[in-house]
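S1.2 Input.
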Amino acid sequence: MSKIQIKSVSAGIQVTVVGAIVNILLAIIKFIFGILGNSRALVADAVHSMSDLASDIVVILGLHFGDQPADKDHHFGHKKIETVTEIVLGVLLLSVAFKLAYDAAFAIINQEYSHPTAITIIAAAISVVSKEWLFRWTKAVGIKHDSRAILANAWHHRSDALSSVAVLAGLVFIQISPELAVLDSIASLIVSVLIVKVGWDILLEGYKRIIDTAPPPSYVEEINKIIEKYPGATNPHKLRMRYIGNAIHMEVHIEVAPDMTVKEGHDIAAGIKHKILKHDNRVLDVTVHIEPEGEAAGN
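S1.3 Output.
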């Protein structure tokens, strides 16, 4: 691993660990204030912070295990640990979200509204400021180091900030007009739906990767064009890809001139591999199969 890659992983882990600590503190603060201040919405928002913590854990595992070399028991490395973690976390988030949504809907239907106290506004305001700060910092690190995982985590922070804005607005209105107490349950229901979306997205992505779903067709075509433009390589075919964690493993068959030496063919294959690895740092490995021109037509 190069010094640049090490620096990128280090920066990514640093911002994600800080984010995880902030999420834990916010979840504790919002849960305690939500219970003491009698706010369903704030308790649901505390769970939403835990959903962000779940994505933090996935990113940290991905960055950490992405550094671990393959061994005699794991020839392709340990990146699928991240995928298994994603699936487990997704299931847990969905379970909690459905319980929160059920309780909020039950309260609305039966008009069993809670009446939050003013203290809850403090916790919601702290959450909005903290999560927006985390979003901006994490996004800057993700852009600087071109990390899709870190950028995705930044947007999780933003979703939590937006949900806290909704909760804060509801709590303020309730303090102004106590007869609007239903807003607390409505805000709780909205936040529950947001948690369902986060949990479902995490679960779905993990499921697709564990069953070797390929990247989007647009990405496959993007890589195919890179290969087609490489000097000496013709007719790229059987381009196949699969995820290993957040990384991508791919293989492709190309044709070269029949009278080309083994070394020349090897150099072309190595050049294609280098170009693809340089194009996208998510690519873990590229296997290039060499065939003489016209061989593919006979297969």
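S1.4 Remarks. The first strand starts at residue 234 and ends at 244.
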